[in-house]
Amino acid sequence: MKYKKIECEVLVVGGGVAGIAASIKAAREGASTVLIEKNSFPGGTGITGLHRFICGLYANTEDVPDKILNKGIASEICFMLQELAPEKIPLRMGKVSVLPFATSNFMSVLRSLSEKEKQLDIYYDTRAVSAKTENNTIVSVTIQNLNKKFDIIPRVVIDCSGDGVIIKLSGARYRTTPPDQRQLSGYTFRVKGLKDVDDIPAVKVPYYLAKAVEQKKMPFYLKYTTFTAGDDEDEGYCKLNIPPAGIMEREKQAKKDALLVHTYLARVLPVFNKSYIVEMSPEVVDREGPRLYGKYTLTANDVINARKFPDGIVKSAWPIELWDQQKGVRYRYLGPGDNYEIPLRCLISKDISNLYCAGRCISVTAEALGSTRVMGTCISLGERAGYGAAHW
Ligand SMILES: Cc1cc2nc3c(=O)[nH]c(=O)nc-3n(C[C@H](O)[C@H](O)[C@H](O)COP(=O)(O)OP(=O)(O)OC[C@H]3O[C@@H](n4cnc5c(N)ncnc54)[C@H](O)[C@@H]3O)c2cc1C
């Protein structure tokens, strides 16, 4: 069967934060760019995971206002978010700072930045379904929108799918962690109707859920649930940290877990008594997926020792944050004021000549991914991949 063909210089697959930044940058560098995204909106995990904070933007110092580590699109996004919500200023969380945001503002910033690029064509509700590779080069990618299929003929492809879709379809090598050692995935629900919310639910929610687990009232992993206050006084977010694999129909199971947690909290914690769920994540979101086999693989030692590289393109000071299936979360921090660099080689496939990656699926060890995967870093990785691909 013959499909309609679309030629472009840069094809970006996945419109999460990495893909949006990659496509904007490639287009700004003058490359005819196509972005495809399977959802009907931009932002990927940052939106479907109901995230509240952009992590990985700032230097690891006590400077006020916090210094942005990577200028460019990350700074533009911060500036636009702060214009929309001046009250949302960087917040100190333990030893690092984060930028709070409202989901709707984040989505509209990503849309308005990308939609004004003349060299960029965006296809939502469209997924990459196959790729043809000849002589270690991707020659075409077939995409599907409802029942229609098209062939994209790109010069370069950037895989920003988080799940390594193009890495796998093109036959490039990649690494994965065995399912039982993978980091916990996430599923969030938003509640309204809370009474007298202060910082205490953040402490009490895990405490009470740990007790319920001890009494065998719920599966053990639900004790890793966290609580964050929302924008309105009566609002809050509960983030469940759940096993990443092994469960068929995991959305169904996650929803059941969310209802179990909420019903229990409404019974034991007065602040939750009259609360009701107003929103749930549309899907379970993964911290870990396939990682490219790139020209360099960043390690935990590189991160912790604040290593710099001649081809370092993105800086990060975010700790290694590991959500272990048995032990919950552990942090390994860099020294005060330190940051490490991610070399360009982590974004380039060792096997496929015209394949770049950005965001979650770059070439790093599972431990290093605990630091590189946060959104602030993914935005800048996307931007640098977009630049590299446009000039390939
Ligand atoms: C539970 C949890 C909590 C987190 N909390 C935070 C936090 O508070 N702050 C923070 O900064 N980071 C957080 N992170 C990390 C962060 O959200 C992600 O690592 C980051 O958003 C990844 O961005 P990305 O662009 O690489 O990938 P994604 O956001 O996963 O985007 C990939 C995009 O590709 C699309 N796609 C997939 N397959 C296809 C296909 N075949 N065709 C077309 N499109 C496709 C997807 O729909 C998606 O939009 C968290 C992660 C998890 C799992």
Cofactors and ligands: flavin-adenine dinucleotide
Q: Provide the CATH superfamily of the largest domain.
A: FAD/NAD(P)-binding domain
The N- and C-terminal alpha carbons lie at a distance of 31 Å
**What's the story with the biggest beta sheet?**
7 strands, mixed
Q: Outline, from the CA principal axes? A: globular
Overview of this protein structure:
With 392 residues, this protein is an alpha+beta fold. It is built from ten helices and 20 strands. The strands form six sheets. Strands 1, 2, 6, 7, 8, 9 and 20 form a seven-stranded mixed β-sheet that branches. α1 links the parallel β1 (4-13) and β2. The protein is globular, with a radius of gyration of 21 Å. The structure holds flavin-adenine dinucleotide. Flavin-adenine dinucleotide (FAD) is lined by residues 13-19, 36-39, 44-46, 49, 51, 53-56, 127-128, 160-163, 165, 185-186, 285-287, 359-360, 373-376, 378.
Attribute tags:
single chain, 392 residues, alpha+beta, FAD/NAD(P)-binding domain, Alpha-Beta Plaits, 2 domains, seven-stranded mixed beta sheet, four-stranded antiparallel beta sheet, 10 helices, globular, binds flavin-adenine dinucleotide
How would you concisely characterize the structure shown here?
This protein has helices at residues 17-28, 45-48, 73-84, 103-115, 165-170, 200-214, 250-268, 300-304, 366-372, 375-390; strands at residues 4-13, 33-36, 53-54, 91-93, 96-100, 120-123, 126-134, 137-145, 148-159, 174-175, 185-192, 226-229, 236-242, 276-280, 291-292, 312-316, 320-324, 328-332, 340-343, 355-357.
